[in-house]
Amino acid sequence: MRKFPLIIVTILSVLVLVACGNSAPNKRDGEKVTITQTVSLSSGTQNGETTYKRSEITTEFTKNPKRIAVYALGVLDIFDFIGLDVLGIEKLALPFASVPERLNQYTKAPHVNGGTLFEVDHETLQLFRPDLIILDGRSANLYEDLKQKYAYADILDATSTTYSVETHKAIVNNLSKLFDNGGDSMKEEMASIETEINAIKGVTKDYKALFIMSNGFNQSKIVISVSGADGRYGTLHNDFGFLEAAPGGKISGGDSHGLPVTLENLTEINPDVIFIMDRAAVVADVSSSLTELKNEPIFKSLNAVKNNYVFDLDSVSWYTVSGGFNSTRQMINDIKAFVQLVTNK
Question: Which of 7, 117, 146, 282 yields a CA-CA distance of 20 to 30 A from 256?
Answer without folding.
Answer: 146
